[in-house]
Amino acid sequence: MKIESIRLKNFKTFRDVEITDIPKFCVFIGANGSGESTFFSVFGFLQDAMTGAVNSALTKLGGSRGILEVRSRNTAGPVEIELKLLTGKILAEGAIPRHEVRDAAHIAVSGANNMNYLLTWNCKHMANAQIIRRISVICNRHGYHMPVICTPEELMGE
Fold this sequence. Notes:
The protein is built from 7 helices and 5 strands, in the order ββαααβααβαβα. By secondary structure, the protein is of the alpha+beta class. Helix 4 crosses helix 5 (101-112). The chain starts with a strand and ends with a helix.
């Protein structure tokens, strides 16, 4: 899935940084110690935190010092990591209810990867003409491909 933007606050060397308008192909170049590896460690940390416990993810990244090593030195306040994806736009703009994150993610993955069809039996939140219209507006506004969302029966016809 395409990341629209990323914001890091108090995360290791990044006291407060935001990267926006990230293209599909992006290269990070810098001198040793300037933070390229730290930037990419965010994704491993998020994976560990979401598949296990946050405390164990902090220990894995920060060693025995945990949060003290992960938080930027000489700063106070929480570590903040914010990723903006198409899924968030679909939920934020009300096309799909906020508690249906998986449905929004299915649509976002399909749109971000230029899939032609998204087959589903979910007629409440996905294969629904009113929902499809709202999602289409969001995808078009943000430059994403809008897949045809339908049931397998609709795709096959009679």
